[in-house]
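Question (not urgent): is this output format expected?
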Amino acid sequence: MTKQARQLAVVITGQNTTDGASVKLKRIVSQQQKNAFDPFILLDEFGSDEAMDYVGGFPDHPHRGFETVTYMLEGAMLHRDHLGNEGHLRAGDVQWMTAAHGIIHSEMPEQENGRLHGFQLWINLPAKEKMQPPHYQEFAAVKIPRVNLGDGGYLKIIAGEYVAENQRIAGPVTGVTTQPLYFDIYLSPSQQLDIPVFSQHTVLVYVYKGEVAVDQSSRILNAGQLGQLINGDTIQLITRDQSARFLVLAALPLKEPVVQSGPFVMNTIEEIEQAFCDYHDGVLTL
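Got this back:
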């Protein structure tokens, strides 16, 4: 069966902003897109060599109704929550947190100098799962499969499967309704990679170093840009005279109403109001 390559439909350039305790970051997907990338509702890249840009971290704050995925490239972060969970995220580690009914947590740098670099992705939960108990999946870097692509290129599989040469290599994340795919990829100059994807899934590519062509028309995504690819069951990624590092994200859209306000993502305004009331009354996590 002939594969159809997806075409680049939308390009977004990440915007510099701050969050938490004045942490500088680049916001790529946000409320401004009005759920255009269902089920992806937020994507941030944080990265700086200057301690003042990140040392304040993200003190205690609540979440309800979605999942957060934190992926570290460099540096170290300490996660704590109201349940007594504590996790140390270091280079290459991943935390997949399902906030669901409610979580109050903090994410604080475990360093006062050096480079801190990573990503946080928010993925919506279906309505039937938003009020379930919260839970975590945490994976050290050694648990993330790495596939050598030749010529120095490689692919890390955080979630989903990579299919090539009659083999399937699965990432460690399991049990997620939206069937997410989350790859971190490095391509050397003049290298091509084709990745099969489900035709009904939302597919995004975010370049954080170099540049990459993302379809047969050779349209380029540069560092700091995200592209949405539509209509097809494979994506083609091609470098030219320089290498590139980028994320490939895909997931099944929920096609449900979305109302987001700050740290809460629900289906109706009434549910958002209830989340704020629950947080104010100290019962968000009960």
